[in-house]
Amino acid sequence: MNESRKTIEVKVERTIAASPGEVFDAWLDPKTPGNPWNMADKLLLNPHVDGFFYWLIKGNSHYGRFTEVERPGRIQHTWMSRSTLGEETTVTVTFKKQGEDTVMTLVHSGIPDTDAGRGHEKGWNYFLDIFPEQFGKVSPKEK
Question: Model pTM?
Protein backbone atom coordinates (compact mmCIF):
# COMPACT_ATOMS: atom_id res chain seq x y z
CA MET A 1 0.00 0.00 0.00
CA ASN A 2 1.32 3.40 -0.93
CA GLU A 3 -1.25 5.44 0.93
CA SER A 4 -0.17 6.84 4.27
CA ARG A 5 -1.64 4.99 7.22
CA LYS A 6 -4.41 6.82 9.04
CA THR A 7 -4.36 6.58 12.83
CA ILE A 8 -6.79 7.39 15.58
CA GLU A 9 -6.48 8.29 19.24
CA VAL A 10 -8.65 6.96 22.06
CA LYS A 11 -9.07 9.03 25.24
CA VAL A 12 -10.84 7.64 28.31
CA GLU A 13 -11.15 9.55 31.57
CA ARG A 14 -12.51 8.62 34.99
CA THR A 15 -12.65 10.34 38.38
CA ILE A 16 -11.62 7.90 41.11
CA ALA A 17 -12.18 8.33 44.85
CA ALA A 18 -8.55 7.83 45.95
CA SER A 19 -5.20 9.64 45.92
CA PRO A 20 -3.05 9.65 42.75
CA GLY A 21 -0.50 7.36 44.47
CA GLU A 22 -3.17 4.80 45.37
CA VAL A 23 -4.63 4.84 41.86
CA PHE A 24 -1.16 4.66 40.24
CA ASP A 25 -0.17 1.66 42.39
CA ALA A 26 -3.47 -0.14 41.77
CA TRP A 27 -3.17 0.36 37.98
CA LEU A 28 0.17 -1.50 38.01
CA ASP A 29 -0.93 -4.24 40.45
CA PRO A 30 -2.05 -7.41 38.62
CA LYS A 31 -4.17 -8.32 41.69
CA THR A 32 -6.42 -5.25 41.21
CA PRO A 33 -9.56 -5.94 39.15
CA GLY A 34 -10.21 -3.50 36.33
CA ASN A 35 -6.67 -2.96 35.15
CA PRO A 36 -5.72 -4.94 32.05
CA TRP A 37 -3.01 -6.93 33.83
CA ASN A 38 -5.60 -8.49 36.15
CA MET A 39 -7.50 -10.15 33.30
CA ALA A 40 -4.48 -11.76 31.64
CA ASP A 41 -4.40 -15.44 30.81
CA LYS A 42 -0.61 -15.08 30.85
CA LEU A 43 1.32 -12.04 32.06
CA LEU A 44 4.92 -10.88 32.20
CA LEU A 45 5.07 -7.38 33.69
CA ASN A 46 8.12 -5.25 34.50
CA PRO A 47 6.74 -1.72 35.03
CA HIS A 48 10.03 0.20 34.98
CA VAL A 49 11.53 2.38 32.24
CA ASP A 50 12.71 0.01 29.50
CA GLY A 51 10.86 -2.85 31.23
CA PHE A 52 8.73 -5.04 28.98
CA PHE A 53 5.27 -6.50 29.32
CA TYR A 54 3.61 -9.42 27.59
CA TRP A 55 -0.14 -9.79 28.06
CA LEU A 56 -2.15 -12.70 26.65
CA ILE A 57 -5.94 -12.52 26.81
CA LYS A 58 -8.36 -14.78 24.94
CA GLY A 59 -5.59 -15.94 22.62
CA ASN A 60 -4.57 -12.39 21.66
CA SER A 61 -1.00 -11.35 22.52
CA HIS A 62 -0.17 -7.77 23.47
CA TYR A 63 3.29 -6.53 24.28
CA GLY A 64 5.24 -3.36 24.79
CA ARG A 65 7.89 -1.46 26.67
CA PHE A 66 7.52 1.08 29.46
CA THR A 67 8.96 4.45 28.42
CA GLU A 68 7.92 6.54 31.46
CA VAL A 69 7.06 5.46 34.99
CA GLU A 70 6.75 8.55 37.20
CA ARG A 71 4.84 7.77 40.39
CA PRO A 72 2.28 9.12 41.16
CA GLY A 73 1.58 11.15 38.03
CA ARG A 74 2.29 9.34 34.77
CA ILE A 75 2.85 5.99 33.07
CA GLN A 76 3.65 5.62 29.39
CA HIS A 77 4.30 2.47 27.40
CA THR A 78 4.20 1.17 23.89
CA TRP A 79 1.42 -1.25 22.89
CA MET A 80 1.50 -3.75 20.05
CA SER A 81 -0.97 -6.47 19.06
CA ARG A 82 -2.79 -7.91 16.08
CA SER A 83 -5.27 -5.05 16.50
CA THR A 84 -2.47 -2.51 15.93
CA LEU A 85 -1.34 -4.50 12.85
CA GLY A 86 1.98 -5.09 14.61
CA GLU A 87 2.60 -1.33 14.71
CA GLU A 88 3.91 0.23 17.90
CA THR A 89 1.27 2.50 19.46
CA THR A 90 1.52 4.56 22.66
CA VAL A 91 -0.54 4.38 25.85
CA THR A 92 -0.19 7.31 28.28
CA VAL A 93 -1.95 7.22 31.64
CA THR A 94 -1.96 10.30 33.88
CA PHE A 95 -3.18 10.67 37.45
CA LYS A 96 -4.08 14.21 38.59
CA LYS A 97 -5.29 15.16 42.06
CA GLN A 98 -8.70 16.83 42.09
CA GLY A 99 -9.83 17.58 45.62
CA GLU A 100 -9.96 14.23 47.43
CA ASP A 101 -10.12 12.35 44.14
CA THR A 102 -7.90 11.53 41.18
CA VAL A 103 -8.70 12.21 37.55
CA MET A 104 -7.25 9.28 35.61
CA THR A 105 -6.82 9.89 31.89
CA LEU A 106 -5.77 7.18 29.45
CA VAL A 107 -4.76 8.21 25.94
CA HIS A 108 -3.92 5.50 23.38
CA SER A 109 -2.44 7.08 20.25
CA GLY A 110 -1.15 5.90 16.90
CA ILE A 111 -3.83 3.22 16.56
CA PRO A 112 -4.55 2.11 12.98
CA ASP A 113 -7.91 3.43 11.79
CA THR A 114 -9.41 -0.04 11.24
CA ASP A 115 -12.31 -1.91 12.85
CA ALA A 116 -9.85 -3.74 15.12
CA GLY A 117 -8.06 -0.48 15.93
CA ARG A 118 -11.32 1.29 16.78
CA GLY A 119 -12.12 -1.61 19.12
CA HIS A 120 -9.54 -0.25 21.58
CA GLU A 121 -12.04 2.41 22.68
CA LYS A 122 -14.50 -0.27 23.79
CA GLY A 123 -11.67 -2.22 25.46
CA TRP A 124 -10.28 0.69 27.47
CA ASN A 125 -13.78 1.80 28.51
CA TYR A 126 -14.46 -1.76 29.68
CA PHE A 127 -11.45 -1.68 32.01
CA LEU A 128 -12.04 1.87 33.22
CA ASP A 129 -15.67 1.09 34.04
CA ILE A 130 -14.53 -1.69 36.42
CA PHE A 131 -11.33 -0.16 37.83
CA PRO A 132 -12.83 2.74 39.90
CA GLU A 133 -15.08 0.27 41.74
CA GLN A 134 -12.01 -1.12 43.53
CA PHE A 135 -11.83 2.08 45.58
CA GLY A 136 -15.23 1.54 47.18
CA LYS A 137 -16.56 5.09 46.98
CA VAL A 138 -18.46 5.22 43.70
CA SER A 139 -21.04 7.99 43.59
CA PRO A 140 -24.62 6.73 43.11
CA LYS A 141 -24.99 8.35 39.66
CA GLU A 142 -22.00 6.33 38.37
CA LYS A 143 -23.41 2.95 39.44
Answer: 0.91
